[in-house]
Amino acid sequence: MKIFDVYGVGNALVDIQAQITDDVLESFRFPKGIMTLADEDTQQRVLGALNGVPITRCAGGSAANTILGVADFGGKAAYAGKVAGDEIGEFFLDDMRRMGVSIEVPPAKGLTGTCVILITEDAQRTMLTNLSVSATLGPDDIDEETIKHSKFVYVEGYLFAGESTKAAAMRAIELAHKHQVPVAFTVSDPFLIHLHRDLFWDLIKGPVDLLFCNLEEARALTGMQDAIECAGEIHRHSRNVCLTMGGDGSLIMHEGKVIPIEGVSTEAIDTTGAGDMYAAGVLYGVTCGLTWKQAGHVASHAAARIVSQLGARLKRRFTPEDLEELLR
Fold first, then answer.
1. Is residue 298 part of a domain?
2. Looking at residue 319, what is its pLDDT?
3. What CATH number does the domain containing 317 carry?
4. What DSSP state is assigned to residue 289?
5. Looking at the predicted structure, is the pLDDT value of residue 311 above 70?
6. CB under 8 Å to 199, separation ≥6 — which residues?
7. Which of 33, 135, 137, 278 would bridge with 303, disulfide CB 3.0–4.6 Å?
8. How many domains does the chain have?
9. In a 3-state reduction of DSSP, which class is residue 183?
């Protein structure tokens, strides 16, 4: 019997979000619009510079955002991520469990990881990530029984940036394969593709049943430019592909067919978590009996809703009535 719709594995981070001007961002000297790994001193320097700027915080990390999105839709989810026994770590666990997510990984000594998300007026987000103890997640933290009783395992590509977390990701994939649980994988960022291209292709050709990527990542994977050609090339090796294209919608490849998913017009305020929420919509849909077209439709609306607000957590959850209206 399946207890969970999705079991996610990822870096457990507390997201700390702030709206700033381009001038402030330029003073930090970080590349705009991408994720940069920051050491503890750098993270504290940035947080100090934000003193007096309104901030919000919530449990985060790419896969955690997706798992929380599945819970937002009413799905049942579990998560493997490592936090410390500090105040921020307790906040992360309480936040996840309050949303109904099962998380039972023992805390570690040290500091809980954080992701400072700097949002500029053009809705771009520049992320500074300090992994701290989240980087110590390892194979022993992956729960075989939970995987066995899940409909899908979801793994974030950011885990492949560290040896311990990569081993945790590979263990989750191995156990999913053992128990015939399909694996969804998001490549997370083009820089990871450049570092791990061969390994990622091995996963895509092997145990991965559903690949999530955006157009930039698909181009980095395939060396092609056209979205349909990129998706088709990946689909030659992976059973299912979801390729997102921002406001232009997305493409889903399933059983050799291209399923175009419309973009949803909205005023973008903050693009944080758009891809994560899209993945949540698809995973919720396919684990709850929707067609791939329906799941993509729900995912597109979910991504549009998340970019129209600040932060990667839905301010207004999808109700059963919302879903019924979307699927009508």
1. yes
2. 78
3. 3.40.1190.20
4. T
5. no
6. 160
7. 278
8. 1
9. strand
